[in-house]
C-alpha cells in the first residue's frame, strides 16, 4: 500500500470542499434565516424571505405551519404588492404591514385549486408582509393600526 503524497491529500481536500460547497449552494434556499416578531402580544417565529427567489417561493409546497409560526417578507422599499397562493397546501392570513404597522389584513385565504391561482393585492403601499395560519388574525384580535415588533434578527 503506497503512501499518499501531500499533493494527493490536497486534491482530495479540494474535491471534498467542492462537493460540500455545491451541496450548500443547492440547498441553502431551503434554510431561510429566522427571527421572532411580536404582534398583538403574540410572539411568532418567522422565516425571513428577503430575496426575490425566497419571496417568489414563499410557503409554496409546505404541508403546514406550526402554531405561532409564519413567514415574514421584507422588501427594500414601500409599494403596493401582490401575492398569490400557487402550490399552497393550507389556508393562510396575509397581514400587510408598512413600517411596523398593520395597514390591512386578508384573512382565511384558501389554497388555490385551479391552475391560475387568484392574486391578492395590498390596498396600500407596504414594505412587509406576514403570512400566518388562517384564523390567526381573528383569534388574536389583530386590527389595522396594530404594531409589529421585530424581537430578534
UniProtKB/TrEMBL annotation:
Question: Pfam families attached here?
Answer: DUF192
- The entry's keywords: Membrane, Transmembrane, Transmembrane helix
Segments spanning the bilayer are 6-25
Q: Could you tell me what this protein is called? A: DUF192 domain-containing protein
Source organism: Candidatus Magasanikbacteria bacterium GW2011_GWC2_41_17
